[in-house]
Design a protein that fits this description.
This protein is mainly β. It has one domain (26-202). 11% of the residues lie in helices and 45% in strands. The chain has one helix and 15 strands. The strands form two sheets. Strands 2, 3, 6, 7, 8, 9, 12, 13 and 15 form a nine-stranded antiparallel sheet that branches. It has a six-stranded antiparallel sheet with strand order 10-11-5-4-1-14, with no helix packed on it. The longest helix is centred in the first third of the chain and has 22 residues, at 2-23. 29% of the residues are buried. Residues 15-26 have low confidence and may be disordered. Bound molecules: calcium ion (CA) (2 copies). The site of one calcium ion has 7 residues, from loops.
Length: 205
């Protein structure tokens, strides 16, 4: 009887320790992305297959995932991984975006890069009742080829644990800059309509 009690006590201690450890781990990661896109699939104007692809690899989406940090529970992190991210573009404007819907609203986290560097470090457009632009930090990391947005959850109306972000989607676009005076049409695009996987994200905190 005594042995059984000790075994039960040890099981409880192990479960408590496990749940404490899980609380400090960032949810969502590169190994389990919400979106896994195909590579070498950038298209001319978004519609026509393109070959070769080497000159557009900086807008080729590899994957995208959401994550959170138990020590910063007021933020939602959204990360977009490219095949070969450059923080400076050659001549064109590069647009990077992750979008999702939550509570009837659509949200788009965006970063724009220009030939001279970052044009917009990051912002979120909330398309609920008309567009609302909110600044949020966009972090570029050329080593990991990732852009990460640090989205204050208050922009989304302070969602709580267990609520779900749906219609997750990512998109990149190369087009002429405003300064060029050329038509601002979309020249090269990668969208995740053809992704291998697209999943919802359940908020952890
Ligand atoms: Ca791609
Ligand atoms: Ca794609």
């Amino acid at each position: 009887m005594k042995r059984k009690r000790i075994a039960l006590l040890m099981c409880i201690l192990m479960l408590v320790s496990l749940s404490l450890n899980m609380g400090s781990v960032m949810a969502g990661d590169e190994e389990h992305p919400e979106i896994e896109d195909r590579t070498r699939d950038v298209r001319f104007t978004g519609y026509f297959p393109l070959w070769p692809q080497f000159f557009v690899k900086h807008i080729d989406i590899v994957s995208a995932w959401f994550h959170e940090d138990s020590e910063n529970p007021d933020y939602l992190y959204a990360t977009l991984k490219l095949r070969d991210l450059n923080s400076v573009t050659d001549t064109l404007e590069a647009i990077y975006m992750i979008s999702w819907t939550y509570n009837g609203g659509t949200y788009e986290a965006i970063v724009k890069l220009h030939p001279e560097g970052i044009a917009y470090g990051g912002y979120v457009i909330s398309i609920n009742d008309g567009e609302r632009h909110e600044y949020c930090e966009g972090i570029l990391d050329e080593e990991t080829n990732c852009i990460t947005w640090k989205v204050p959850k208050e922009i989304l109306g302070d969602p709580t644990s267990g609520e779900v972000l749906t219609n997750t989607f990512a998109y990149t676009d190369l087009r002429c800059t405003e300064e060029s005076g050329l038509p601002r049409i979309d020249l090269f695009k990668d969208l995740t309509w053809n992704a291998k996987t697209t999943q919802d994200y359940t908020l952890q905190y």
